[in-house]
Each structure stands twice: as structure tokens, then as C-alpha cells.
Amino acid sequence: MFRSKLTYNYLVFGLPIFMIAALALLTTSSEFRENTRLLSIGISIDLLLIIPLVYLILIRNTQIPKTTIIPLLVLGLIVGKTIIPGEHQYYLDLFKNWALPVLELSVLGYIIYNVRKAFQSFKLNKKINRDFYSILKITCKEILPKPLVIPFVTEIAVFYYGFVNWKRREFKANEFHYHKDSGSISLLAVLIFLITIETIVLHILLAMWNGLIAWILTFLSLYSIIQILGFLRSMSKRPIIIEDGELYLRYGIMNEAVVDLKDIRSIEISAKDIELNSETKKLSFLGSLESHNLILHLNKEYTLTGLYGRKSKFTTLAFHVDDKHDFKQYIETIAKGSIS
């Protein structure tokens, strides 16, 4: 069964690639040179309509998201722009300027619709541990290609937490914040300030030499500031949560892990320095730049998921919680004294 599924996957992705390669080969033939205009129209139709249609037929009964047709269309457009002479790219330009933006907006609208629907569903079921970032990941996994999920979710979350979600969050008894006393907010705020100053100075200096490069570097710096702002604000919106026998460890949208309370061997209140290695990690993405006041020891290995899907294993995790004593006591109460 596994072999047949693997073979079918090769067919799903291999056939469209083979068809595109065949069209590219056709443009090198003498027939194409003799009938360039007519064959350019045919190749454009094949790249933007026939091949995507074949792909949709191949994936109709699979779990492959239908939205994967967008990368195929983009690939077809790029190939067409490469192999078809510029004076015969009318239909490619028409697609690029009109159809592609509509498709992209449709996919974005579909994602927003599904996120909203997921929010309503979780709200009805009172799943308080599902926040915007978690629901966005769940939704995008169902409608986007796997390699695109985490990068897409991260970019959307950065703008959401940085510019949209400014409502003050009321913390429940099982939710614990970690951003007020850790110093991470101040550190990131100083970093934003330094990048801003550096950007202004560099822009002035580079503009005297090359205006285009000056604006490119300025744009990259502004994008970095937006990223850091989103990271910073997400920390106050994504608390550490204890619910349904599980500990949801979060450091904004930068790092997170879910631990079963039954697998906690001990939790100690400690700010002592620890050596970070293959088994010992810090929840903060700032590493040794940020202090900790709790060290969690586990009976088994768990996964820490970081930015853009980066994963690492741990059995010991150091992190900061503002109300460390209440946090430890809450876990011990939930675990009914099983943690020493």
C-alpha cells in the first residue's frame, strides 16, 4: 500500500513536471521557430490551463491541498516567461496582471474564512488553549503545502500581533505571563531603537552613493523592525497555559512546546546558570541573554518548536514565569502531588 501511494505521488508531481519539460523542449525545435506565434499561444494555454487542470484531476481524491495549484501556476508562469519570446507573452502578462492576483486574494480570503470558522468552533467548545497562532497553523495545514505552512503562518502572525491585536488580555487562573519581569521586552525594545537609528544613519550615507541600495537596505531594516515588534507583542498575548493535563509552554510565536503533566519528573525554582546542550534547552529564543527562574525536568524527550518550524529535542527546559511560586504550586495541585 505504501509503495502504491508513493508511486501515485510520483505520478501526481512527476506528470506536470514532465509536461512542462516537454513544452520547454518544444521551444527549441525548428517547428517552434517556424510557427512561433501560434505555438506560443498553445504553450501559454498548456502552462496556465491544461497542466493545472491535469494536476487538479490527479489530486482530486488525495489529501493534497487544492491550493497547491498556485505554486504550479507560478512555476508555469515563470517557465513561460523564460521560454516564450517576449513579443508573444500577451497571455502570460494577462494572467500575471489579472488572474494571479485574484487567485492569491482568493486563497487568502479562504484562509481567513477558515480561521474565523475555526475560532467560532473552538469558542463553542471552550478550547481556551487555542489562540490565533495555534488556530492559524491548524487551518493552514489543511489548505497549504506543508513547506509553506510555517513561513506563511509566521508572517501573518507577526502582522497580527504587531498591528491588529492591541486588546488587553485578561489572564485566567491557569494562564501565566512571563514578559513583565524577564527583561525581554526591554531588550527587544532597545533592539528596535538601535535598528531605527542605524537605518536612518545608513540611509543618509548610502543615499549619497546609491539611492536604490539605500532604499533596499532601509526596507530590509524596516521589515526587521516589524518582525521584532510582532515577536515582542506576541509574548503578552500567548501566555503559558495549564489545561486538560497538559502544559502549554510558549514564548510568544518564537518558541513553544506541549508537555504532558504526567511526564514531569520535577520542577525547581532556580536562576542558576545551566549548560545548554542536546538535552537541555531554554524556552526563550534569546538563550543566555535572558535569565530564567524555573527549570523543568522531564521523564521523556519532548520537542521544542521555534521560528519557521525549527525543532529541537529536550528533557530539561529552563524558562521564566513572572509568578513562579504560583505556577509551581498550580502544577503540583493539578498533578496531585506527583511532582516533588
Brief sketch in words of this structure:
The longest helix has 35 residues, at 90-124. By secondary structure, the chain is α+β, with helices and mostly antiparallel strands.
Description:
The strands form 2 sheets. A 4-stranded antiparallel β-sheet has the order 1-2-3-4, with no helix packed on it. Strands 5-7-8-6 form a 4-stranded mixed β-sheet, with helices on one face. A hairpin with a 5-residue loop joins β7 and β8 (311-319). Helices cover 58% and strands 14% of the residues. The chain has helices at 2-26, 30-34, 36-59, 69-83, 90-124, 132-143, 146-164, 184-207, 211-237, 324-334, and strands spanning 175-176, 240-243, 246-251, 255-260, 264-269, 280-282, 294-305, 311-319. α1 (2-26) packs antiparallel against α3, α3 packs antiparallel against α4 (69-83) and α8 (184-207) runs antiparallel to α9 (211-237). It has 10 helices and 8 strands. The model has no long low-confidence stretch (mean pLDDT 85). By secondary structure, it is an alpha+beta fold. The longest helix has 35 residues, at 90-124.
